[in-house]
Amino acid sequence: MPKRILLIEDDKEISQLIESHLKQENYEVFVALDGEEAESFIDKEEFDLVLLDLMLPKVNGMDVLKQIRERSVVPVVIISAKGSDLDKALGLGFGADDYLSKPFSMIELTARVQAAIRRATQYIRTDHQPTEDRIHYKDLTLDLRTFSVQVRGQSVTLTSKEFHILKLFLTYQSRVFTKEQIYQFVWQDDYYGNENVINVHIRRLREKIEEDPSNPQFIRTVWGIGYKLGG
């Protein structure tokens, strides 16, 4: 099956050029010419990657990105003429995976698209959605009714944030989450480089559930990317 790409670009000439090129590379491409049309696609369809311009009519690109991140961890590559360091930082901070400044070559675009999809398929496989009130992983059990956790048969007391971080990992047992994504899912707020907040919560959570917090078996670090459950 060809990978499905949502292209959100209001410049018709640029969107037609990108669409034509990606179709030649055997991608299935859907085109939105403004933010409202993009949000409609996001509500109804599933994609393997989103190419997002920031300067959009009706609904701006940052708001579209925030809507995407409220419901999905699909890789998002920003394509924008706004190439300042601040714009890049804001885009990546809101949950984008990559940033490509206009003008760019189709060769570079293809390489970025391939890399983003490869990372997603390598680190974000299939979701393990809980169908019952308890989620299990090895000798760890999380009870969604009582907000309680048991590790190796022993009850563990977690704070609300620690519980929801652990729930995130157990719900999506094959995914790697960046610190930005953890913050957005658990705190449900914009991420402005609050890296230390995540580090502290992960450390405290490890101290409570790991036999050896310095050699964690439940929440592992994926260097340069973020954290994931298990091996």
TrEMBL record:
GO biological process, one term: regulation of DNA-templated transcription
Pfam families assigned to the protein according to its UniProt record, in alphabetical order: Response_reg, Trans_reg_C
Single GO molecular function: phosphorelay response regulator activity
GO (cellular component) term, any one: cytosol
N-terminal signal peptide: none
Compartments in which it is found: Cytoplasm
DNA-binding region: 132-231
Domain (Response regulatory) ranges: 4-117
Entry keyword set: DNA-binding, Phosphoprotein, Transcription, Transcription regulation, Two-component regulatory system
Keyword Phosphoprotein: yes
Domain OmpR/PhoB-type positions: 132-231
Keyword Transcription: yes
Residues the record lists as 4-aspartylphosphate modifications: 53
Identification of the protein by name: DNA-binding response regulator
